[in-house]
Specification:
It comes from Rhodococcoides kroppenstedtii. This protein is α/β, with parallel strands linked by helices and 498 residues long. It contains 16 helices and 23 strands. The longest helix has 19 residues. Bound molecules: nicotinamide-adenine-dinucleotide. Nicotinamide-adenine-dinucleotide binds next to helix 8.
Length: 498
């Protein structure tokens, strides 16, 4: 098979760049190298940023009516051609096709939210704040903005940001993950087809060098980053030190509490879906199941019942769960299972020897359930990012809450109970940004904002929703005197209202 080269997208067209550095792109279900992605050098990065900078003045001045019509066109094209994008995601990420379609639909919801931008950008107006003086507020775009995204949602995560950024009048440089870069180019082509002017949406392929240039370039006004916690922290500190507005979403270790009064069938279904969906490579995956009181034995049995028939295999063959993204990642996740076993956890379902429905060279690891996990084990302390669900047994609700609140991550969490009072207490007391009540993956709708607490987000603005609009604009307050603009003559005192 000949490998294709995946380059950048600049000024409405493909751009090869001058760098001779590339990285392999593989199909995780076959282990085959299917392409090589360009890794930008400094000149490439600067060329992409320059395109976004020169497109900004005209796009900023483009009417809201025109911007909105392009967003609607983009939404229609995306909706009608999402199968193409899903196939690209499955081929490079490995997640099963239905899951890939799910991520596109969640991204599309942000496009739909951004279609309402004229309403979202309305400012305030105060007539006669002082005699014959009016005051009003407007929100204006920042300029060219940088978006740096992770491998696990090559379409949805960029779409958390770019529809809102573009709708607000900014131009974009997207730096996708080098593991699955093709979705970004497909999205760029779609924008062109939707009528977006050249240079408004650009793609810069690359690694740390490209990221560093985005963080340092004076032209780039903000950074929206999603990825692992150490890189999020680095991006936040470097970006803000360079005077940029930064939102940097990091890693996660999501807990679900199951109380003794919960519907255990519902909870077991939810644990399997949230633990093993997308092979656990979701920042909202449940990786720690906190079983309260005497609930664990029955719950573990129900989870085993549901896990055993799951089919791990090629995402194009109707499997339940696909491979992990790379061989190195597959081996790392398997090594955590080894470590958990050595530390004394019980391996109730072992995915290490899975018979996958797929090429033997695929990066397979089946669903894995570990019981009697304790908080000091590495399988509990670290973000594993694989299909490994750990059961931690505790005596009381308070023990469970303490465990979650002591955890350095705070992305998502869930409680399973039939007790409204317990659920309400949990939503109030838990130190986590997104909370599910009998819902295992509480990803907020586009018109709410997505974001975690603690080491799961650096910065104070969550993604999309009104927080997204706020992030991609800055406020201006105007004080105006019209009609009979009489002045009071010379007066060096501070202006007072009358
Ligand atoms: P990653 O941190 O390795 O990479 C993310 C991005 O940073 C990529 O574009 C990558 O090219 C770039 N990058 C990698 N190393 C860099 C470096 N040293 N300097 C500068 N840039 C660098 O993350 P990943 O493995 O692609 O994605 C998985 C991680 O993302 C998990 O930790 C997951 O929890 C997290 N994630 C978080 C959320 C959230 O909403 N909080 C959502 C999705 C994924």
């Amino acid at each position: 098979m000949t490998t294709n080269t995946i380059g950048h997208w600049v000024d409405g067209k493909p751009f090869a760049g001058t760098s001779d550095r590339t990285a392999e792109v593989t199909n995780p279900a076959t282990g085959e190298v299917t392409g090589r992605v360009a890794l930008a050098d400094l000149d490439d990065a600067r060329a992409v940023i320059a395109a976004a900078a020169s497109a900004f003045p005209a796009w900023r001045d483009t009417s809201l009516a025109k911007r909105t019509s392009i967003l609607f066109a983009f939404r229609e094209l995306l909706n009608s051609r999402k199968d193409e994008l899903a196939a690209i995601i499955t081929a490079e990420h490995g997640k099963v096709l239905s899951d890939a379609l799910g991520e596109i639909s969640r991204g599309q919801e942000v496009v739909e939210f951004a279609c309402g931008i004229p309403h979202l950008l309305k400012g305030g107006f105060t007539e006669n704040a002082s005699t014959k003086v009016d005051v009003f507020s407007i929100r204006q775009p920042l300029g060219p903005v940088g978006i740096i995204s992770p491998f696990n949602f090559p379409a949805m995560v960029p779409m958390w940001f770019f529809p809102v950024a573009i709708a607000c009048g900014n131009t974009v440089v997207l730096k996708p993950s080098e593991k699955d870069p093709t979705a970004s180019i497909w999205l760029a082509e779609l924008w062109k087809e939707a009528g977006l002017p050249d240079g408004v949406f650009n793609v810069l392929q690359g690694d740390k060098l490209a990221v560093d240039e985005l963080l340092e370039s004076r032209a780039i006004k903000s950074i929206s980053f999603v990825g692992s916690t150490p890189i999020a922290e680095y991006v936040y500190s470097t970006g803000t030190a360079n005077g940029k507005r930064v939102q940097a979403l990091g890693g996660a270790k999501n807990h679900a509490i199951v109380l003794p009064d919960a519907d255990l069938d519902l909870a077991a279904d939810a644990m399997v879906n949230a633990g093993f969906g997308s092979a656990g490579e979701r920042c909202m995956a449940i990786s720690a199941l906190v079983a309260v009181g005497d609930v664990a034995d029955d719950l573990v049995a129900k989870i085993v019942e549901r896990t055993t028939p799951l089919r791990t295999g090629d995402g194009t063959r109707g499997s339940d769960m696909g491979p992990l993204v790379t061989k190195a990642h597959r081996d790392k996740v398997a090594s955590y299972v080894d470590a958990g076993e050595n530390d004394g956890a019980t391996v109730v379902v072992d995915g290490r020897g899975v018979q996958a429905d797929g090429d033997p060279n695929g990066f397979w690891l089946g669903p894995t359930l570990l019981d009697h996990v304790t908080p000091e084990m590495s399988v509990y302390t670290d973000e594993i990012f694989g299909p490994v669900l750990s059961v931690v047994r505790v005596e009381t609700y308070d023990d469970a809450l303490q465990l979650i609140n002591d955890n350095p991550y705070g992305n998502g969490t869930a409680i399973f109970t039939n007790d409204g009072g317990a659920a309400r207490r949990f939503q109030n007391e838990v130190e986590v940004g997104m909370v599910g009540i009998n819902v295992p993956i509480p990803v907020p709708m586009a018109y709410y904002s997505f974001g975690g607490w603690k080491n799961s987000l650096f910065g104070d603005t969550h993604a999309h929703g009104t927080e997204g609009v706020h992030f991609f604009t800055r406020g201006k307050a105007v004080t105006a005197r019209w009609l009979d603009p009489s002045h009071g003559g010379i007066n060096l005192g501070f202006p007072q209202n009358d």
